Amino acid sequence: MRAKWFAIPFAIAVLATGCGGSGGDGGADTATTGASGGTGGDAPTIALFLPESKTTRYEAFDRPLFEAKVKELCAACKVLYNNADQDAAKQQQQVEAALTQGADVLVLDAVDAAAVAPLVNQAKQKKIPVIAYDRLISGIGYDYFVSFNNVRVGEMQGQALLDALNAKGTAGKGQIVMIHGSPTDPSSADYKKGAHNVLDGKVTIGREFDTPDWSPDKAQQEMEQAITALGRDKIVGVLSANDGMAGGAIAAMKRAGYDPLLPITGQDAELAAVQRILTGEQYMTIYLDIRSEAEKSAELAVAVGKGEKPAAPTKVNNGTADIPAFLLDPIAVTADKVKDTIVKDGFYKAADICQGETAAACAKAGIS
């Protein structure tokens, strides 16, 4: 499927017919249509586990897109939906409950991707396929990994920040602050690696943080600490690994009296971030084709739940095994690219973006 929303950067055919359903709100909720769980065959029960809700993408996009694709492919399937609220112990309970309820496939976005190997092993002992969603699970082999090229995400963020500093003539005149994501998320390590690939040797890194839970509040505190430690006039830019933390860092900059604000990166194309980019408060975001990620994962879940083994275009080594993988391409978006990416794809409607003080910026960018 690719209505006019998103283009998939890889091509693969997965034969899947007949399946769908919907999930609940956080626990092992099972609102569904059709057959009961644990049957496999033509109507597998698919368990989807998402890690948290502080990042708006999971409840606003990943979950509904995944559930809708399953329903489209398989009207008799059941989806067990769970959100762990950034609690690894809670996610463990959710996975164990789903296994007890007869899940035929696990689609797991791990809170702590280094600590879920025992859960994956439980599934393997029951011959239940596991798809790592968005975050690479380490320490054990499993069936598939669906995500973005995360090192490339970090490289794009680093290059965008470097471009902004060079355009201002400040790359060699101060220090940058790097605000990375959760240390329990292996994607965060990939983003960090990519950013360092670009920035090392070209800028001076004054302070660098790993931010528990990807928390915007903690990112604000980290930025405040950096400003105090380095001095307000010594900082020339900020590498933020996602939009939520960028919002926290921007709040810290405003409190410190920066005008104009320092160039800052982001990721996820959150609505507030897109508005900040248009009004000049945030320099860029990484636009992730979440529709493609969620729908590819749904297609795989339906297929493997029926006993099929779709071929993957590549493999990713997780330190223990080479995992068959589908890696999508990220897109760097600055103000001049919002119209032809985020708006054109229908990720947000112009009416959603162009509200209040953003309306004038939209007109300037040709968004209506």
Automatic annotation (TrEMBL):
<feature type="domain" description="Periplasmic binding protein">
    <location>
        <begin position="46"/>
        <end position="309"/>
    </location>
</feature>
<dbReference type="Pfam" id="PF13407">
    <property type="entry name" value="Peripla_BP_4"/>
</dbReference>
<keyword id="KW-0732">Signal</keyword>
<dbReference type="InterPro" id="IPR050555">
    <property type="entry name" value="Bact_Solute-Bind_Prot2"/>
</dbReference>
<dbReference type="GO" id="GO:0030246">
    <property type="term" value="F:carbohydrate binding"/>
</dbReference>
<dbReference type="GO" id="GO:0030288">
    <property type="term" value="C:outer membrane-bounded periplasmic space"/>
</dbReference>
<dbReference type="InterPro" id="IPR028082">
    <property type="entry name" value="Peripla_BP_I"/>
</dbReference>
<dbReference type="InterPro" id="IPR025997">
    <property type="entry name" value="SBP_2_dom"/>
</dbReference>
<protein>
    <submittedName>
        <fullName>ABC transporter substrate-binding protein</fullName>
    </submittedName>
</protein>
